Amino acid sequence: MAAEKILIVDDERLVRWSLRQKCEEWGYQIVEAPSGEPGLRLAQSESPDLILLDVRMPDINGIQVLEQVKKNPDAPAVIMITADPQLDDVKTALKLGAYDFVGKPLDFEELHVTIQNALEASRLRTEVQSLRGEVRRSTGYHDVVAVAPKTIELMSFVQKVAASEATTILIQGESGTGKDLIAKNIHYDSSRQNGPFVAINCSAIPETLMEAELFGHEKGAFTDAKAMKKGLFETAHGGTLFLDEIGELSPLLQAKLLRVLEDQVIRRVGGVRDLQVDVRVVAASNRDLEKAVREGHFRQDLYYRLAIIAIFIPPLRERPEDILPLVDFFVTWYNRKFKKSIRGISPETRRLLLAHNWPGNVRELKNSIERAMILEEESILRPVYLPFAVGESGRSGLTAFEHSSASADGGGKQLSNGRVLPRLYIPEEGTSLEEVERAMVELAMRQARGNQTHAARLLDISRDALRYKLKKFELVPAGEEENSEPVPSENSSTQ
Ligand SMILES: Nc1ncnc2c1ncn2[C@@H]1O[C@H](COP(=O)(O)OP(=O)(O)O)[C@@H](O)[C@H]1O
Ligand SMILES: [Mg+2]
Questions:
Q1: Which of 323, 332, 376, 423 is the most exposed place for a label (fewest CB within 10 A)?
Q2: pLDDT score for 485
Q3: Distance CA 125, CA 318 (A)
């Protein structure tokens, strides 16, 4: 590897000389400049890996040099050197991206360590950047798993839209299908990527505040308006404004938004002049907006304006090829996050994941994997910890409770009757002991395929006790006719 290049910028000849001696001794290649202006030129022409920069210099000072240098996104690491560190300078320099400050007279040993650390940090940064570049090149987009043909098609459309001049885009899809994610991708794949990405959820803010939030207000526009405040359209200037849950916008604001989209000008609340803004609006909705228009809840003209470019994200159940790749993606993600080393999923887990119909889409899948990975102590994800492992009957008690025939594998506590306690888990929001019991009984019946003797044995209770519980919980014993009369509950009079 070629020697790393250090640019020394200092107006004191003696300091430059001693720095050069030391740095060459440490194996670096040196260029030097006696003041700010030539320093800046060398920073350009020599592309050093690091700059040692004096703060006080006669022409332009070190802070100004730093500011110029750091305008370049690939700027080298900069270490500031000063005889009398002023707190203000230090703060400004660090804010501008200086790596560190060292004082004069120089402690060379300390300086050497600082230089090594700074170079290491920028090496890491470049590596991460080029890695990111590679990931992007290989998948084509950021953090989006796309394996199903539908999703691949969707993503190539998204890329086309991102690169286009379109200033309004509508994303529709059920909750959890990836609308936020796609909106961010549109921004970061567009020519606006270096501008701001600003997001707001239209259902989260009361109508009275929403207008000022979007368009800002002048000082004194209303009682609380003590100072002028910019709105989100101004904040997003040059970038992208993401309006989530656009279907919840009030009629008044729908009208105002339409005007902004058509004229690309806004007016602050209480203001008298129009301000030009350059903003791409990406709106999202999990409601069927066309239907909302038909029902009179959403302005037709606004809908047409938004829907010029409309992206529809299909629900996860319509693109099952994405399920297992998403699982892999989230397992890798949470391994890193939780410092775990889960290798994969068991065949039964895979079967359950593929059979589930994912009403909560990718978000539900992600949450399920997160939870399973928190609870799993083995190196593969077993079905035990899947929230829907018991069945999909949707009874609240069932999700609170962890089924497993697999808990006999030694994970559960050994009981005095020689049996094993199944793994249980109580959700944050609590559960109901009675529902847990009911779920147990129901599960035993299912595992015993409706055979009451067998189910009673599974639970270590008598057959009568089981029958009593079946009645109490109004569980129609499997195997009896579907439309049997409701079994009387414990409280009703005995028949
Ligand atoms: N195709 C995908 N690949 C990877 N992660 C995804 C994908 N789709 C959605 N996600 C993740 O699922 C979660 C929910 O997505 P989000 O964009 O918030 O959905 P929505 O806004 O439609 O409710 C997020 O954590 C998101 O990153
Ligand atoms: Mg969302």
A1: 332
A2: 40
A3: 39
